[in-house]
Amino acid sequence: MPYDNNNIFAKILRGEIPCNKIHEDAHALAFHDINPQAPVHALVIPKGKYLDAPDFYLNAAPDEIAGFGRAIVAVTQKIGVAETGYRLIANIGAHSHQEVPHYHVHVLGGRPLGAMLPAGP
Ligand code: AMP
User: Fold this and answer.
1) Which of 25, 40, 83, 87 could cysteine-pair with 110, CB 3.0–4.6 Å?
2) pLDDT tens column, 66-98
3) Hey, whose CA ends up nearest to atom 15 of ligand 1?
4) What residues are labeled active site?
5) How far, in Å, is the centroid of ligand 1 from the Cα of 83?
6) What is the pLDDT, as a whole number, of residue 89?
7) How many CB atoms neighbour CB 23 within 10 A?
């Protein structure tokens, strides 16, 4: 599947749609999720055009990958979950229910999050 330049995160990166920004640097943008699933729910996205985690980690340059990882850590500090703990989630493909085809990592926290998934296998 080719990268869709009209996906919603591409529009946010181009400034065509607003976001509630948390962090921005050369490699990443982070903003609050519009439909939070926890008291704190941030999204961290790379600035490059990558569909999902495999696309990003196989094709991005090393400095993009390092910068993205460090941006996630910066975000956890800015939203106040670095000390209490948090969960990182990246959905990939149909079984994960990935909705937006631009790689992103969810940062969830602000309360004890319980089991990783609602039900087992
Ligand atoms: P995923 O299912 O992993 O693709 O997650 C996509 C996430 O993007 C969902 O949690 C949505 O609530 C969130 N989302 C969709 N549109 C926006 C938007 N305009 N601003 C912030 N978050 C959004």
Assistant:
1) 40
2) 999 999 999 999 999 999 999 999 999 999 999
3) 34
4) 104
5) 25
6) 98
7) 18
What distance, in Å, lies between the first and last C-alpha atoms of the chain? 29
Q: What does the alpha-carbon distance between residue 15 and residue 103 come to, in Å, rounded to a whole number?
A: 18
> Rounded mean pLDDT of 33-47?
98
Q: Which of 7, 11, 34 to mutate to test the pocket of ligand 1 (most atoms within 8 A of CB)?
A: 34
Probe residue for ligand 1, chosen from 9, 11, 31, 33 as the CB with the greatest number of ligand atoms within 8 Å: 33
Burial of 110 (0-12, 13-18, 19+ CB in 10 A): middle
Query: CATH number of the domain at 8-109, out of 3.30.428.10, 3.40.50.970, 1.10.10.10, 3.30.565.10?
Result: 3.30.428.10
Mean per-residue pLDDT for 1-30? 97
Q: Please tell me whether the overall predicted TM-score, pTM, comes out greater than 0.85 for this model.
A: yes
Ligand 1 contacts CB of residue 94 (under 6 A)? no
